[in-house]
Amino acid sequence: MTGIWNDIRYSIRRIGSSPATTLAILLTLAIGIGASTAVFSLVEAILLRPLPYPESDRIVYLAQSVEGGESTTSPSDYRDWRDQSTSFDAMTAMYPGSAAWNAPGEPEQLKAGFVHGGFFNVLGVQPEKGRGFQSSDEVDGAGRVAVLSHSLWQRRFGGAEAAIGQVARINGRATTIVGVMPPGFAFPRESDLWIPLQFSEKDFATQRGAHYLMVLARLRDGVTPSAAAVEMRGIGERLAADYPNTNADMGNIIVRPLLENVVKRIRPQILMLSGAVILLLLIACTNVANVLISRGLGRAREISIRSALGAGRWRLFRQLLTESLMLALAGGILGVLLAALLTSAISSIELSQIPRLSEATLNREVLAVAAVLSAASGLFFGIIPALFLLGPISKRVSEGTSRSGAGRETRLLRSILVVSEVGLAVLLLSAAGVLIRSFVALTAVDPGFDARGVIAFDVDIPKARYPEVADRSGFQQRMIERIESIPSVTRAATVFGLPMSDFNYMISISEIDETRTLPDDERSLHVRIITPGYLETLKIPLLRGRGLTDSDVAGAPDAILLNESAAKLVFGETDPIGRSIRIGTRFGGDRRAGGTVVGLISDFHHDSLADPPRPEIFLSAGQFPADSVTVAVRTAGNPESIIPGLRGALAAIDPEVPIYDVRTLEQAVDETVSTRRAMMMMLIFFAATGLLLAGIGIYGVISYGVSQRTRELGIRIALGAERARIMRGVIREAVALTVAGLAAGILGFVALKQLLARFVFGISPTDITTQVVAASIILLIAVAGAWAPAWRASRVEPVRALREE
Question: Is residue 777 within 8 Å of residue 691, measured between CB atoms?
Fold first, then answer.
């Protein structure tokens, strides 16, 4: 221990003896370790940290596999899964929605979880106050009950125990409060309350084709997800054979851990950032290794003297490695401080598409990784110089005492390190360039509608207050009329499923031209319900026929619109106008939704700019009104300026019906690319930092080479060599190192083609233009980094050089 303590004290003195060099090393390490630690805090919070439920690894998500992806589940399939499976302790079905708290004078729209079965048992969390749901609560026609979140209980009842048993009007219905959940419980999607789903036997018999339920289950003790998947596949295949009309292609049932399901969309991007930050850390460590080699060569005489006095190679190696580890420790401390700032900034960003982002923090696990990164970095950039300097010591003495000797091995090693830096920088810069071009291509996509000047909000029409089709249709009509009377409003309409709203409602076609479809002709359409004026509000082009009008109401012939994709899917290349379609659902009436095609509209992007248009059918709200709608309003001025007027317009119609989720359509479109933008910006930061470090590395190597060749350059100038030629020679050396690094980096970038393919849009993952631009930038930086040493080399005075030698 005494020897190690002596090494530490000596290392501190050595580090303090060259403060400028030490500061450069510490800043370099702080950037590399800090960025790595910040990104790992995201990895830990999003991908690794268990969900906040007891034995959360036993909770699995179940879905039906369909061509091109997966589907939510129908009530009928859910019941069969629950009744026929033996792998689970409990199973529940749910869907996230909203519910209006109808309090006179203070209505509030809440996020609600509509759940069935053992919801609280599956998640392993029971109400803190009162009780959960009982099977009798789920019987069709039973009295409505609800369980409140802890925050809603505090907000509405002040945390009073007397809230249990009170009756509130929710969605226009009398609802008894039976329980309150513990603080922090808000699954799914930050729910404010939970309401039991009530299915009748008729619902289970007729809703096998209606896919809208999320299904979760808790595995029995000792059952693995893969074992449960084998059982569920057998159940799925039996259902496919029994119900070929709806389940023919859904025999494979997905069983996935809930955590994996929560993060599946963001996992590739987080892993990509992890790879990028590792490259940055390697660049930083390589840079530090280069600096230590330069500084170590100045200590060759010291090392040889200590060796002559009896210090063994291991003793000298330990001393050099201790210095590196001390530098790594100090750099790690600065890196943690930088990581705290970066993590705080990142976690404060509101990105709804990144789950658990706000939970990122520097906890014990993250700090432990920071310590490991620091130690690993110290070993990485310490071992190489130490082994090199402790080669044949007599040779190091020769190199250290002769200013004329450039030290071929030294120059070779430093050149290899610079080539490695450049190669890693090329990887980072090329990846960032591809993402930039991909993002530009994505944002240039025409969505198929005009989002400028459009504001939207959601409204739930309480069925208890507006039970008939005509009631709900009349409510929407009065609402639109009042909104269109607001100054600066040019058009307004309602829609069941606004673009860019994460809305998905797909129903199978039951009839085409009044002929029932056959099992082998199973096709599905995405359903939209609109009021007249919707096409004009969003400026969606009508290609043929007419749009929906005020005459398309209950009692009139059912009229529908199709987009191009739907028309091609159903009717091929023939004209769809005048043909008829019915889909397998009813919206509060006795007849199935659908009608005669009266118009054909152009395709537009519904999920995001990156996803292709869907085949969509548009129904008239006057004939098939929905209970929950989005109101889209086009304005002549700033759309956000009319928000008070919108609230007043709805309050004048029904003061107990709130509006919620107010946003401009441009914001909705922007939200679909926000995650790509955030990832691109972080990668650009890493690439720019790596580029800076690589430039510093090139400068250091060329500057060192010039200092070692002072005598040679002085003699050449004395013999008549042109100063410009000497500058070109020095710059040529930098370009040669850079080109070697570019070649290595480009080869590595091409090798990553398959990994990059999932992140790009509209361009090749190995886009030639991007690589040429990246290479050009690095070459310019290399020339710029070499210019100062080259200029200094060309200004060497021969007499002074010979005198120094």
Answer: yes
